[in-house]
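Notebook entry, structure prediction.
Reason for the run: the old model in the group folder had no record of what sequence produced it. Starting over properly, with the input documented here first.
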Amino acid sequence: VLVEAGGVLASLTARWDGATGEAKLTSSWAGEIDKRQIRHEGALTASASWPRTGRKQVSASVTGFVRSPSGQGRGEVEVQGSGSSLSTSHWQVSAPRLSWHDKPTAGLALEDIRAEIAVDWPDVRLVSLSAANAERLSAEGDFSAERRSWAFSLLAEGARAAREQSRPIDVTLVATGDQEHIVVKTFEMVRRNLAVQAAGTIALPSTELHEAHAKASWMIDPADGRKGLDAVSGNLQCQADITGTLRPMNLQLQSVLSGESVTFNKKAVGAIEIPWDAQIDAERTRYKTGSFKLFGGTWNMNGEHDFSRQSSQVALDANHVLL
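New structure, fully documented this time:
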């Protein structure tokens, strides 16, 4: 069968033997979303053994490729399931590689992902999860079709977005959800001298944030050799209350940047505290500070960063500064 609809051309071949309960299916597709300049293509193969009595088995393999103005991705997923019925079954899902690249040398490349899922309808449980990108990975998940609710927890240590990433991260996530809300109880990410924590509630379907708060703390060490920071050292922390919506992206941040034991060109600055407000949408972020004290003077700053152009503008006003 050859089908063309909605800018997608697809072919489908299927065979079913009612006497033995054996079935095979192959399909491929290619299409383009002109308005968003997205090109996609892929292939599917599947088979099933579904006798009237006894154990049932299903297997499928999907490969896909997508290209858009923001990058390109490629993936392969394999699924195998068996059980006395679909409502009481055990599934193994594996992905040898899932990748997304926005630049030739940068992006995401997850390898050898494996998950085990147990179905006892109306409950579905994530039994285990593993991936080659993490030194240690554990996860638990539950979904109730009856209550339309879910819970998920993840602990990843020594995780890398790609094998060539030099500095791994540790990630902890605990979240629950239902038809009306997604509740992020705990999100923590640690990468060497940087630690980020966040929590909050996302209302559905509006994606409006409620009681959302984030905290980041990091230590600047000149020995790291980071360009532009080789003259600065100290312990910094930023705490932010976040409001707005995720989709469309329209976020407002009210935050305070504080620092302890800060030095500049080996000169002690001491403690700093900078009120900082920001507004973020899909195109740019705009920010401004309240008045703050530094080097004996009074400072104010505002600016914006354009995501598509990767350009920034900053205006800085300082009075009575002693250097």
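Summary: The CA atoms of residues 184 and 217 lie 20 Å apart.
The old model has been moved to the deprecated folder.
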